[in-house]
Task: inverse folding
């Protein structure tokens, strides 16, 4: 039997490794790394937590307008010294640590990745998840799908789940929350706790009761899973305003109820108790059991025959950023409209209006 245990979400101050047009600032990465190690200590000692979740960009910060080459320069390796520092902190405090890094892979020169990791209490990187949905210049597994699954495997590699004595953990990153297929596939691989490693600004769809907040609660409810979302805290010595993040990191239970939430965008920790045995009892119940009642074969033919965003689109060379991805998106929208899946508005003037800001 697994006794209830504490999970902590960190909402830390982050110093971007780029400021405006500055050169890469490795000292900023080291500063963020030092903060993270101190946060790990606090989560273990003060909150008595078994798992701490960091946000997207907790090591690198973010600066729009930088080139792929810039982010490649700033990226780290899974076997590099920066991750080793986090591994040592996890081992020292006997805690699981989850977060995101900008990663380079020797198999794919000239590319960088937005990668979620979970480090176990033995100080080993025990799970690696590479972000599936984004519109910037990073490479996503779907961009080089055939080669990626040949190297790393299929569904188990795309939607990895870490089975631990605390329960089964899966990661998703920021924009992924808008695609119910991501958490559903994680759940079908056995995930019981979704770690939503995010970076969200002050747009209306990010705020409490906005679309992303509602999506999180639905993802937890429809999969009978806990969900812990970590958002960035204040920006220190960056090009953006210090409080450009909306904060509101949160922990949600398997009923879709918010157990704890940061009430501001400040540097803080929030903690909630995780009762895996209660979740497992819920998943065994023969009533409103969406995972048991799901019939994937009903849906699979439509998914297989519908052409939306192309796979392998950036296999020969990586995309350079939002503009190139938006061109692909426009082509996909035109094809969906021509095929009768989407219906064009009566006035062409509204097409493309109200475009959302760049999403990581």
Result:
């Amino acid at each position: 039997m697994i006794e209830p245990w504490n999970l902590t979400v960190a909402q830390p101050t982050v110093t971007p490794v780029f400021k405006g047009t500055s050169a890469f600032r490795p000292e900023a990465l080291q500063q963020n790394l030092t903060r993270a190690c101190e946060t790990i200590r606090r989560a273990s000692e003060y909150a008595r937590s078994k798992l701490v979740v960091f946000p997207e960009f907790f090591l690198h910060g973010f600066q729009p307008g930088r080139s792929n080459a810039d982010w490649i320069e700033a990226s780290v390796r899974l076997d590099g010294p920066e991750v080793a520092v986090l591994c040592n902190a996890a081992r020292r405090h006997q805690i699981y640590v989850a977060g995101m890094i900008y990663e380079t892979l020797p198999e794919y020169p000239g590319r960088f990745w937005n990668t979620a990791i979970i480090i176990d209490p033995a100080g080993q990187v025990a799970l690696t998840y590479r972000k599936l949905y984004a519109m910037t210049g990073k490479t996503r597994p779907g961009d080089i799908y055939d080669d990626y699954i040949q190297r790393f495997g299929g569904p188990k590699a795309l939607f990895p789940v870490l089975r631990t004595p605390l329960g089964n953990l899966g990661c998703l990153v920021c924009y992924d929350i808008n695609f119910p297929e991501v958490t559903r596939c994680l759940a079908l691989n056995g995930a019981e706790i979704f770690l939503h490693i995010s970076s969200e600004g002050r747009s209306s769809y990010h705020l409490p009761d906005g679309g992303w907040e509602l999506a999180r609660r639905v993802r937890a409810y429809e999969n009978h899973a806990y969900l812990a979302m970590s958002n960035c805290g204040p920006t220190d010595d960056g090009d953006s305003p210090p409080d450009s993040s909306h904060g509101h990191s949160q922990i949600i239970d398997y009923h879709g109820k918010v157990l704890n939430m940061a009430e501001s965008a400040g540097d803080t920790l929030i903690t909630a108790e995780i009762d895996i045995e209660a979740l497992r009892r819920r998943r065994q119940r023969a009533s409103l059991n969406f995972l048991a009642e799901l019939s994937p074969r009903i849906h699979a033919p439509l998914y297989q025959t519908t052409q939306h965003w192309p796979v392998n689109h950036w296999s020969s060379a990586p995309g350079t950023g939002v503009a190139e991805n938006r061109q692909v998106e426009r082509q996909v929208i035109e094809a969906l409209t021509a095929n009768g899946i989407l219906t064009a508005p009566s006035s062409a003037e509204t097409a493309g209006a109200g475009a959302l800001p760049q999403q990581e």
Observations:
- The chain has a mean pLDDT of 94.
- The radius of gyration is 20 Å.
- Residues 5-296 form a domain with the Nitrilase/N-carbamoyl-D-aminoacid amidohydrolase fold (CATH 3.60.110.10).
